[in-house]
Amino acid sequence: MLHAEQAGTLRAVDGRAEAAAVPGITGLTITIPVGQCVRPLPEGDQYLGFIFAEGNTPEDTAAALRAARNRLHVTIW
Q: Where exactly are the structural domains of the chain?
């Protein structure tokens, strides 16, 4: 689950192709459209999106999710 780190208006989510290309990543979906207001949890009521992964071990899966998230550049202001 991708959460908003700050309140504001979602301006861009860059790096999707790079994140999706991480070995083990099986899907990446951004569910909030650019231009929509977002708020961080617990005040917010939506996630920015979701990253899905699989691996040989839970550690491999978690590492793939972290690597993919690190490739996403979310702009909120």
A: 8-76
